[in-house]
C-alpha cells in the first residue's frame, strides 16, 4: 500500500536515448555525415607518401603508393644497382635491394606519431603499435607502428620493425585478432569490437510498460546517512544510496498545487545533447497545507534508551523530541515511552498547553541511556498508547527513535504492518528516526520497520538536522501527514 504526503514529491526519472532504427548502424562520434552533401574531412593524420593525385609513381597516391622499382612511399630511384631490382650496385651499399642498408633484404613499415608521446613505447624491447581511435576512421589492414617508440627504429614515417608481431607481448593497441600474442578477448580495440546485429532492437515489439508505486514516498534518510558516512571517513555502500530518498529530501521547486488535493505532472529535459539523451520526469505532489489548519496530533514517541545510545545518539534523540515540542499546540496529545530492557512511560497521553509545554520539556530532561535492548516490548507498548489515546480524524503516529541496535523479528514487522493498515483510512503509521554515529547504525533495520509502518524514515545526524526536519512547521507537517494512498504510476512506451 503506497501513500503520498502533502508537499512531497514522487518522481520517476528515465533516461531516453535517441536510437537508430533496427538494422541501422550507429554512426561513430566525429565520423562524416551519411547522405546529403556531406564530405569526407581531410585525413586527421599525415599519410605515408603524402596525399598526391591517384596513380602517381612519385607522390604515393591512392593507386600509385609505391614506385615501379619497389620502394615504399614512392621514393624516386634512378635504376642503379641497389635501387630495388636486386642487382649489386651503389643504391644503399649492401646490394640486397631493400634500400635500408642492412643487407638482409627486409622491408620497411609505416608508423604514425601520436599526439600523446606517452601513449606507446612503454614496453622495453617491443615495437608497439600506434593507438588507433574511432575518430581516425577505418584503420589500415596492418596497424602502423608508433613513431616515437625507439624499439621500432623509425625514421621519417618508416620503421625497420613492425608492431603486432609474435614478440611475446600482447599489444592492446593492435586491431582485434591481429597480435598473435593476445588470447581471445584478452584485449581489443573497443571502437572496433564487432557489435551484434540489430543491437538496438528489442526482442519483442510489444510496448514496454513501467510501473511506479510510492511505498517510500516520504522516506528521506539516505542523503543524511550518506553524508554522515562521508563525514566519518567511511566507505558508502551502494545499497545505502536510495535515489528516491534523495528526490524526496531535496526540494525540486515544482509549483505547489493550490486547488487540487493531488497534482501529477510530466516533464522532459535534454540531458546529453551530444548523444540525444533525454530525461523524463513523472511526479506526484500533495497539496500545500498550512500548519494552522492541521488536525490535532496524537503522537507517541517510543525512545531507545539502551546502552548503545550513550553519547551522541541520545543527545540527537533529545534534540529530535525537543524540536518537535515547538510545533505543538493546545490540545495535542503526547506520550513519551523510554525503553531498554524495561519500559518507562514518561508521559501518558498528556495534552499540551502549547509549544514547548513545561511538563513536556521536564519529561524530555529525564531521558538518559542505559541498560539492554527490548524493541519488541517498546513497539507493543507504544502502539497500545497510540490506540488508547486515538483521536478520530486526527493525526495518530508512533515515532520510533533509535540507532537500530536491535533485531526486529517477524512478529514485530507483522505488528507494525497491522497497525498501519489503511482499511479504514486512519491507520497508525510508524515514523522512524535514526540517531547514531555512522559506524554503529543499523540502516537496514530502520528501513524495514518504516516500510512496514508506511511512515517517513528520517536520519538525524546533527542538532541542525533535527531542527530542519522537526523544527520547521511545514516540514514537520509534511513528515507526519498523508495526502493520498495507493499512489501508482504507469508509463507505456511503444
Structural overview:
Keywords: Signal. Residues 1-23 form the signal peptide. With 494 residues, the protein is an alpha/beta fold. It has a domain at 291-490: von Willebrand factor, type A domain (Rossmann fold). Helix content is 18%, strand content 21%. It has helices at 221-231, 243-249, 312-325, 358-364, 375-388, 410-419, 443-453, 463-471, 473-480; strands spanning 3-4, 9-17, 109-112, 145-146, 154-155, 158-159, 208-213, 262-272, 277-286, 297-304, 333-339, 343-351, 395-402, 429-435, 454-460, 484-485, 488-493. A hairpin with a 2-residue loop joins strand 5 (154-155) and strand 6 (158-159). The longest helix is centred in the middle third of the chain and has 14 residues, at 312-325. The model is unreliable at 7-11, 15-21, 23-105 and 188-195 (pLDDT under 50).
Q: Span between N and C termini? A: 28 Å
Strand fraction? 15-25%
CATH topology of the domain at 291-490: Rossmann fold
Q: Could you tell me the mean pLDDT?
A: 74
Radius of gyration, in Å, reads 37 Å
Main sheet: strands, sense, barrel: 6 strands, mixed
What's the CATH first level of the domain at 291-490?
Alpha Beta
Number of helices: 9
Strand line-up of the largest beta sheet: 12-11-10-13-14-15
SS-based class: alpha/beta
Number of strands: 17
Which CATH-level-2 architecture of the domain at 291-490?
Answer: 3-Layer(aba) Sandwich
| Silhouette | elongated
Look at the structure and name the CATH superfamily of the domain at 291-490.
von Willebrand factor, type A domain
Q: Give me the strand/helix succession.
A: EEEEEEEHHEEEHEEHHEHEHEHHEE
Q: Runs with pLDDT <50, length 5+? A: 7-11, 15-21, 23-105, 188-195
Helix percentage: 10-25%
